[in-house]
Amino acid sequence: MPSRTGSHSPAGFGKSLPERGLLLLMVLVFLEGSVLPLGAASSPDTSHQTNLGDHQGTHTGPNSTKKPFPVLAVEYDRVQIPFEISLWVLLASLMKLGFHLIPRLSSIVPESCLLIVVGLLVGGLIKLAGEEVPPVLDSRLFFLCLLPPIILDAGYFLPIRPFMENLGTILMFAVVGTLWNAFFIGGVLYGVAQIQPANPSDLHQLELLPCLLFGSIISAVDPVAVLAVFEEIHINELLHILVFGESLLNDAVTVVLYHLFEEYAGVGTVTLLDGVLGVISFFVVALGGVLVGAIYGILAAFTSRFTSHTRVIEPLFVFVYSYMAYLSAEIFHLSGIMALIACGAVMRPYVEANISHKSHTTIKYFLKMWSSVSETLIFIFLGVATVDGPHAWNWTFVTVTVILCLVARVIGVVGLTYVINKFRIVKLTTKDQFIIAYGGLRGAIAFSLGFLLNQDHFPMRKMFLTAIITVIFFTVFVQGMTIKPLVELLAVKKKQEAKRSINEEIHTQFLDHLLTGIEDICGHYGHHHWKDKLNRFNKKYVKKCLIAGERSKEPQLIAFYHKMEMKQAIELVESGGGVKLPSAMPSTVSMQNIQPKKPPPAKPVERVLPQLPKGREEEIRKILRSNLQRTRQRLRSYNRHTLVADPYEDGFSDLLIKKQRMVELEKKMSNYLTVPAAPPDSPTMCRARLASDPQAYSMKPVSDSVPTIQVDLASPQSPDSVNLLDEFRHAGQQQPEVEDQGLMMKPPSGPSGPNKPREADEARDQQKLMRCLSDPGPSADEDEDEPEKIKKKKSH
Amino acid sequence: MRTNYRWISDVSSCCCLCFFSVSPEQIKNLHKRFQQLSDNEETISRENLEKIPALANNPIRKQIIDAFFDKRNQHQNEVGAFQEIGFEQFLMVMSHFRPPTLKTTEEEREAMRKEKLRFLFNMHDTDNDGTITLEEYRKVVEELLSKSGAIGLEAAKAIADAAMLEVASTNVPHMAPDDFYEGITFEHFEQILKGLEMESRMHIRFLDVDTMTMRCGKSKS
């Protein structure tokens, strides 16, 4: 029986992780709620400078008494703003952390809902403390700081192919759909507002133009909300790109309608001329935004061509150019979102060909990090702003708005799909239409636009804001929570998780060329023909300008192949070297099985090893030593502005030259060199292999037999693995570096280039490059720098 | 003119025997094109197709032209190659590129997918032995990269090897070191490309926008 008094039994304190997480959340919410009012109460920030000046004045005045020197002083005003910002960001991040610690909750309720609730709590706390809620969803903050990272993330990683294939459909939904929604909602609301002559309510004040303005604000599908919800339901690519693309491209329509109605709401009428101007304005806004984005994208691509010596700031160019594109578009009231998307999409293929692998990773993670924090903050702020108000609740208005939003969306989607399906090859089924209609979520953009409204011009502003918030809450909570079970219920096709395989890539390209060829034979200039023309133009002129060095000529298939190999190499090293890749290919097939009929590969058995002629041995040793030297030299030069040299970037042509040299070397050596099979490794071996090139060697105390090696083709892999070597080196491991530079040791299994065969070979036969390396040879001093391990293992 | 239309209706009606769903409008357009290519003769030969200027930039031009003259694509269970083909055979090859409609049932989609994959398979399997060997696959990749110079040729071999290895690994996961994988059979080919949804991707929009086609069997008789 556990004792009641005294120390609790371990079971009492051993709360499960989710519960701890919940506790943490509560603590944080309270903290946030209490600190902010404290900050707000300390002193008004506007005049604290002058106050300080005054204080100083009084302090130095002759009649002030001398106070003891303050050992510990509190001066919060100076750091108030950055402090509060950091506190908000910290809260957002901790919330995100907390939710994922509670698995059950995050699978039922989408994150966005939880975050809004947290925002409500914090806002409530602040209000309870009697303080003024900071205007967190201030439009400037929102549009200039919170929105761009999310859009840039979306634009940079936009899957271009499905987007372009469905561009027509997306544009139809974005433009025509949004227009329909705006006018329908605005018109019907105006009608409803007028039909209550019996009890004169506020609604009668509502004129047509403000209604239309409200309609245009509320009708736009919000990319932030769509991203947040759709990311969790893993729907198939087509539907995802349709809804998401629509949410991005309807920004142009929203901007135009908003400005149009806002401009003329004061005047009271919109003439036909204004309408025509509005249409023209739409094209200017949309195409202008895309143009601005494209220009900045090309600039960024061009800049990245020259960054080979300053790799550290490469990601900065991507971010700054994109942000500039957004701001430049905003200067002219063009569509900033479309500018960002265009910038990201245009610059990506060229920038990725130019920048280092590390920069690529940096860009990816920074974008994901910023967009994630931004999204979290937006939802929390939505909650806080809801508590803040100001609210003017009007039952009729709000309920009619909510109902109208749904009805308009459904009618719009069904009607448009009927028209679109006439032009589409892959038709949209009823299920698809339902998901598209149901996925039309509204979000913070609508709220911010409403917030921007001028109270004098729009006396009904508060009512609008209340209605907007209600619609947002409804879509995010009700639709957001129920879409996942509905997707399951309707058995909508989910995203295929399969990795892109080299076969699919080959056949995608093959199919492109085939279809272009058939179109040419038909004499029909379809979109394959134009796509092919664009590709050729791109290859011939654009790539030469924007991509540095040899990579400009690299065909897409080869680029894909190398990317794939790199990924596999990284996986291989991360999984501990010799262990076979658990995920992709649990098979024992190797190149051996594929090669056409050849003489049976020599079984790795003990056999009498022929003596190497002295000259050959010397040659081998020289090569190996020189490779090692190069590594060490690279290691020594390190300062903050140059990363450890990345051999992969030293030039593609170098790689090819090395490969050619290896081929020749192999030919020379394969005649009389073989290696016996290795017994399994000791733990120290495994550790060593982690840091070094996995295919290179393993350390084994061996007999005195003459070191024999069979050199095989350098896989394009090995320089990349040295890349990882560098990283491991940074981790402070004192592992011997065997700079492999393409010199690979394999059991005699025929020439094989690619990576995959190595996996199988790993498990079976290990090589002993080490033996050759540790062989002191005539000049033993060179081996002194080698870490001790090799020497130790060499013990005979 | 009259003879043309009669001929077209003859062609359409015999095409009904095969699984065809191209509208008369499309057949007319294709026939016009055929006349153009063949200089108003009854048949076209390889030279006629090779003369098309737009095809010059296509890396797999030769394979495409060969596919038109390949007897296997005529669904007649013959093998070999024609020297010249008539409009009927031309249409037959074109029919591989028709898109599915809303009315296409699930089995019809499967059949369509198989047919299109078979077409691709025939393009790769040049020696008619029913498998794509490593050499043939290498040739395919080389042709694809043929416009890219020296880099292309070197990498082609490695890529083809990797691709072949992938096919073998996914289809026959456990092979002893001494086993030998002869080549990609049609089943394996289907398996590795099932993610691509051929029936939706491998199609051409024929010269009109109206994709609501009629099945020949119902319209003509």
TrEMBL record, chain A:
GO terms for cellular component: basolateral plasma membrane. It is found in: Basolateral cell membrane. GO terms for molecular function: calmodulin binding; potassium:proton antiporter activity; sodium:proton antiporter activity. Residues 584-674 form the Sodium/hydrogen exchanger regulatory region domain. Residues 45-64, 732-796 are annotated as: Disordered. Signal peptide: none annotated. This is Sodium/hydrogen exchanger. The chain crosses the membrane at residues 21-40, 109-129, 141-158, 170-192, 276-300, 365-385, 397-421, 433-452, 464-487. It catalyses: Li(+)(in) + Na(+)(out) = Li(+)(out) + Na(+)(in); Li(+)(out) + H(+)(in) = Li(+)(in) + H(+)(out); Na(+)(in) + H(+)(out) = Na(+)(out) + H(+)(in). It comes from Amphiprion ocellaris (Clown anemonefish). Pfam families: Na_H_Exchanger (PF00999), NEXCaM_BD (PF16644). Keywords: Antiport, Calmodulin-binding, Cell membrane, Glycoprotein, Ion transport, Lipoprotein, Membrane, Palmitate, Phosphoprotein, Sodium, Sodium transport, Transmembrane, Transmembrane helix, Transport, Ubl conjugation. The keyword Glycoprotein applies.
Automatic annotation (TrEMBL), chain B:
It holds the Pfam family EF-hand_1. GO terms for molecular function: calcium ion binding; protein kinase inhibitor activity. It is found in: Cell projection, Lamellipodium; Cell projection, Ruffle membrane; Cytoplasm; Membrane. PROSITE patterns: EF_HAND_1 (PS00018), EF_HAND_2 (PS50222). Coiled coil: none annotated. SMART domains: EFh (SM00054). This is Calcineurin B homologous protein 3. It comes from Amphiprion ocellaris.
